[in-house]
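Hi everyone, sorry if this is the wrong subforum. Our group has a chain we'd like a structural model of before ordering constructs, and none of us has done structure prediction before. Sequence below.
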Amino acid sequence: MPYSVAGLWAYARQDATVDSTYQLADVFFEKNKPVEYNDPGVFGFSVYIWNENYTDNIARQVKAEYPDCLIVYGGPQVPKFEDHSWWTEHPYVDVVIFGEGEVAFKKILQANNKQEIAEIVNSSVNINGAWTHNWSNDKRKTRQMNLADLPSPYLEDIMPEVQSHYAMLFETNRGCPYACTFCDWGGLTYSKLVNHDMDRLREEIEYAGRNKIGFLYSVDANFGIMKQRDEQIADWIIETKAKYGYPKTFFVNWAKNANEDILRIAKKMYDAGLIKSFIMSLQTLTEPALEYIKRDNMDINEYDYFARRCAEIGLPFDCEMIIGNPGETVDTWKDAYLTITEYQELSTYLYPLSLLPNAEISTPENRDRFGFTTTRKPFPGVLHEDTQETIEMVTSTNWLLEDELKYIWEWTWTTRLGHEYNLTRDIADFMKENKICSKLEFYDRFYNFIRNEPGVIHNAFMFAKSRIDNHIFGLASQSLGFREKLTVEKREQTFVEISNFLYTFDLDKELHDELIKFCEARLYNPDAEYPMTKTFNYNIVNKQRNKLNMPVEVEFTPTLFGANATTAQIFLEGNMENWKAQTGLTCTLNKPTIIS
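Answer:
Right subforum, don't worry. Here is the predicted structure as tokens:
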């Protein structure tokens, strides 16, 4: 739902002059619907990576039809560099506002001419083809410090009638105390947090439940950082779901410095079915890389403690990581990723290093310092739309040649398939525990086997590789449809190929067969009936190589451990009544329990 642009009007119309002078014609936010307008006086656009080209097309068209219409851009996508080509490429834009927009937009509507608009701090104004910039980095002059002045667009009868597929953006505070160089949180990184009023938030949560909005999307940078306050908000969301059955799912960016309070909040929301896991934003474990991206001073780097605490309280633990950070090499990435795989309950969300226009890492100085080469590729979030959006991807650094970065993505794809998606997790752990081979050797050999041996796994890999070769790293990582094909449709053939790989090691035939049987039983099968029992002659449950005197029966029951869902999948689960529940169990681990 169009939270940001609707919020601009909700604030601006409080002014009597604005309210009497202007009429809101419409709020456009669904790209699959036509944008209809008639002689607009002011046309405002919120511009980000997912709508930049789409917005430019509409703005260009509006200006051509109505030259006197004031075209106003806001949002994080316009580069805040005077010598950037953007300024000459957008002659049809009249005004650009950087940072928070409510006060600035009201002042634009109150102004009599462009000269008055140019006096607004953090504005750029196109006057007769020449841009004038009035920028300030002093957040004390530009921050909206009293959010109580901002009416909620959800509660002001501005939003369109709610449809079943809508997601609701939910903002409890603004700002972020951290300075991660790859991020640009609307220009509010490394800034003081300012909170919305609690009564407003409670009413908005009630609005979501009453209007049967399935997907509540938190736009806070650090939910949980305000411990007692955020726990109260979480409790209200849980209570509202119990009352209405909505919202069904909640997307959240957790506070970077995780602690027991945040784990308690996350566990509550997990038990209520609102989240699938607790996600930590690790980005990397490599010390130089952490320093370069300004993440080295965060408690989040005590990931080991939180991974183990999540296991103790039954909370699936996932992490976000970036591939291609400055300071990262092939060896450091493998070491970091294999360290993460030590945790049974963990999945990763892998992202390529991308350069956002106003992120610190994107400055000309840092591009030169880190030796970045880049290319623009389709943005994965909006692939199936008429207007293609793109994102600037890093293709090499001072530490990674282009072919090395591609190799990392290929190796990670195969290792992730084996360990995160649980096709070979127990085999690799067994081999390491019994000193048959290290996990690094196991997955290096697994990569070479998949890359060179024809079969269904090879075919899935080659499809991902075609994207990697074309620098479409995000899609290679985030497209997960192959998992159902390998583990459901072609399950038998998949395990034949894994068995053939295992034959490359010098193992007893009976042990080989039992390892394959155990891995297959541990991997969730939608066609099986659970609990399911299997008999084993080896103590594989405890990763011991000894053959037992008496066979044991092991019972397998499904869990959500190892689940991995994209934001799009979480959205669908929240907004579609008949969304396949089994999709969330694909490639998850079954829990083994010795029963006799």
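For your construct planning: The first strand starts at residue 42 and ends at 46. Residues 377 and 470 are 9 Å apart (CA to CA).
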